[in-house]
Specification:
Keywords: Hydrolase, Metal-binding, Nuclease, Nucleus. Helices cover 47% and strands 15% of the residues. The protein is built from 12 helices and 7 strands. The strands form 2 sheets. Strands 3-2-1-6-7 form a 5-stranded mixed β-sheet. A two-stranded antiparallel sheet has the order 4-5. The chain is globular, with a radius of gyration of 23 Å. The chain starts with a helix and ends with a helix.
């Protein structure tokens, strides 16, 4: 037993084991983990074959549920590793390893199951929902870019220094009428323009090759209008990508609204 205390500092996981697992209600799950408990359980079951570990002669393994909870808590809150270490009763180095593994497995095993461009009846439902909610017909999704903060890399720092004054990588995403992600492109340095990210994405290639929502045009006031994605003024105006008019100093307030 003495050897064990020399080898590792003892920690308590009581907060997770007794408070969260036994007392958290649905509202607390959503507030702290950004999802319902049944969604959490579904993720645990889906990842279990890939992240489950076995006990060793030195220590008991960290259960799948705890691994997923640690990862979600880290991603959903601004807490430092030090704080999360105290909450879950594991070391900061373990948190780092668990989080990296979680993100890697999610991306490899689950992303394509849930992030995909709609087809068939699902596509029609989304277009109908868009029109009912926002009044825009034949719209499949909306796209934009988002800067993800990063620590300045050792090499090519200027490429990652964005116009807002900090280091980042870019996420381009398409979301549907229910705010669900339908397509993502991530990894470009923060200095790169959103239009360039789009032009080098799989989404752009599909659109330019006529493979994006093909044969889903609709007659509106005598004009065949194709299914479109909405973007902001920085993007090019394309057959499958609709954007607003660029503002000018001569535009009236009423014209800007339109």
């Amino acid at each position: 037993m003495l050897c064990f205390f020399l080898w590792a500092h003892e920690r308590s996981g009581g907060w997770w084991n007794y408070i969260v697992c036994n007392t958290f209600n649905e509202e607390q799950w959503i507030e702290n983990f950004r999802m319902r408990q049944d969604t959490f359980n579904m993720i645990c079951d889906a990842l279990r074959p890939y992240i489950k570990r076995k006990d060793t002669s030195f220590r008991r393994c960290i259960p799948v549920e705890k691994r997923v909870a640690i990862s979600l808590w880290t991603l959903a809150t601004p807490c430092e590793y030090r704080t999360i270490s105290h909450l879950f009763g594991i070391s900061r180095s373990s948190i780092c390893l668990i989080l990296k593994e979680f993100c890697k497995i999610i991306n490899k095993r689950l992303s394509k199951r849930y992030i995909y461009l709609p087809e068939g009846d699902e596509l029609y439902d989304i277009m109908l929902n868009f029109e009912q909610k926002w009044g825009f017909p034949n719209c499949v999704g909306a796209t934009d870019g988002c800067h993800i903060p990063i620590i300045a890399p050792k090499h090519d720092q200027t490429d990652y220094y964005n116009r807002k004054g900090w280091y980042s990588i870019l996420l381009q995403a398409v979301v549907d009428s229910n705010y669900l992600f339908r397509d993502t492109c991530i990894g470009w340095p923060g200095r790169v323009h959103d239009a360039r990210v789009l032009a080098n994405s799989k989404l752009y290639n599909m659109g330019q090759e006529g493979k994006l929502f093909a044969n889903h045009s609709r007659n509106i006031s005598g004009v065949q209008v194709p299914a479109v994605i909405l973007g902001d003024p920085v993007y090019p105006l394309l057959q499958w990508l609709m954007k607003p008019y660029a503002e000018s100093a001569n535009m009236t307030a009423e014209q800007k609204k339109k």
